[in-house]
Structures are given as structure tokens and as C-alpha cells.
Amino acid sequence: LDMSGHVVGKKYLFTSGKPVETVKQCLLELGKEFESSVRVKGVGVTGSGRYFIGHLVGADTVINEITAQAKGALHFDPSIDTLFEIGGQDAKYIRFDQGAVVDFEMNKVCAAGTGSFLEEQAERLDVNIKGEFSEVALSSECPSCLGERCTVFMESDVVHNQQLGVEKADIVAGLSYSIAQNYLNRVVGERKIGNKIYFQGAVANNQGVKAAFESVLGKPISIPPNFDVTGAIGAAILAQEYCREHGITKSRFKGFDVVNMEYKISSFECKE
């Protein structure tokens, strides 16, 4: 982000079970693009494994995921009252009242409502998760009923529908509805859903899932700019605010060239 809070560069990479290597690659790619033209004044880290990644890169702040996602969403629209966030590994619900978080929840052990599950099923159906999945889902006139149960059962239902010769578009649309219903039942539960809803996280790129949410709720869903990195945006804004408030003029950031960086858990302190 620049000093005004505008996104000037971003990278979104799959961790593939190797978060440290992925973060290094991400910074190297950003460095090639920006190192000669920017001076880093603050760094924020969020997400799973945020403490050791924070130590690796030299973070000034380490922010929990709820706080980061909420800050990122409110940056784009301070008037929202409900936030749905579905990423590759987990899902979150956040409720706002006049810009303040008043309730939140994250998914527990079930991964059936996350992006990684959706991607696995898209591969099973030989459908590209980027672009093609949305087009195929929206072309369906009779979505399959796949329920909102856990991963193993939903996978079995997909296979069963394939064996019955159900149209691919109907199965894909059924998966979109399953993701929406799984999220609403297992993450949101009995919690209140307002009328100004933001949907963010990588799965927000899937128009089939967005349409399923709108159909089930009977309410419009908005997707913010840079929906896939709103957590990172929130973490960056909070790092910027922290450095300003504390008069920090030199960031802990170790630089974009992190190939030879090593992680050591000892003597690491960082502001949560």
C-alpha cells in the first residue's frame, strides 16, 4: 500500500504446504517489481503461521485474522454490517455495528466449505476453477442437491451424480449451493445477517457461489476490490497506523531478498 492506503502491488500464491518458501517467492517477485521505487516503512503479517512468518520477514505488527479481515473490509466500505470471508483453508463470519465488530465466527474442523475443497471437486469434474467454474455453474437450469455435509459425504454425492449421468453444469451449480449452505449452517448458524453484505476471500471470485448466496438469502452480495487479499490489506493498514502512532521511522523489514533467511523461534517479540 502507499501512504494513502491504495494498493500499488500484490501477489497471491498457493502455499502448497510450504508457507515459508511461498512467502519468500512472493517477496522476491514483489522486489523485482518495486524494490528500486519504494521504501518500506512498515510491515504487517496475518493468517495461519503469522508469528514465524512475521519473524522471517521482519514484521512490525502481527494481526489476528478476524481483525485484519474486518479492517480490510471497512477500508472499502465503513457502512457494511455483515462480512462473509471464504479462503482456501478456512471461512469467517463477522458482524458489524456502525463500524465496530460485534460478533464473529470461524469454521471449526470441516473443510467442505472452503476454497481447497471446491478446487478439488473442480479437478474431479475437469472444470477449471478460474472462470470456467463460474460460467458452467451459472448455465445450469437444475442444480443438483448435494447437501451441506462434510467433505467425504459431499464427494460421494458428486461421484454418485456423475454415475447417474447428471449434467456437469448441474453438479457444478450444486457444489456452489453446497458451499453457500455449508457456510451458512456451519459458520453463521443462528447469527444475524444484515442487509449490506460483503463477500471476500479467494472464493469470492466464484460467481456461482455468489449467486448461490444471493439465491438462498434473497439479498444482494457485494464483492470489494482486491477481495482475495483483503486480510493482507487490513494487516498493512494496521501496521501503517501502528508505526505512525508510535513514531516508528525504521521498519523491522528485512528486505525483499529473503532467499537465505532462516527462521529461529528464540528472542522474537512483535506487537499483536
Largest sheet: 5 strands, mixed
Distance, first to last CA: 20 Å
Give the overall form: globular
Which stretches of 5+ consecutive residues score pLDDT under 50?
Answer: none
Radius of gyration: 20 Å
Helix count equals 9
Multimerization state: single chain
- What proportion strand? 5-15%
Summed over residues and divided by their number, the pLDDT gives a mean of: 86
What is the structural class? alpha/beta
Number of strands: 7
Helix content: 40-55%
Give the strand order, joined by hyphens, for the main sheet: 5-4-3-6-7
Question: How is this structure best described in words?
Answer:
This protein is α/β, with parallel strands linked by helices. Helices cover 42% and strands 11% of the residues. The protein has nine helices and seven strands, in the order H-E-H-E-H-E-E-E-H-H-H-H-E-H-E-H. The chain has helices spanning 19-34, 50-57, 65-76, 115-124, 132-138, 151-163, 168-188, 207-217, 230-245, and strands at residues 44-46, 61-63, 82-86, 91-97, 100-106, 197-200, 221-222. The strands form two sheets. It has a five-stranded mixed beta sheet, sandwiched between helices. The protein has a two-stranded parallel sheet with strand order 1-2. Strand 6 (197-200), helix 8 (207-217) and strand 7 (221-222) form a beta-alpha-beta unit. Helix 3 packs across helix 9 and helix 6 (151-163) runs antiparallel to helix 7. The protein is globular, with a radius of gyration of 20 Å. The mean pLDDT is 86.
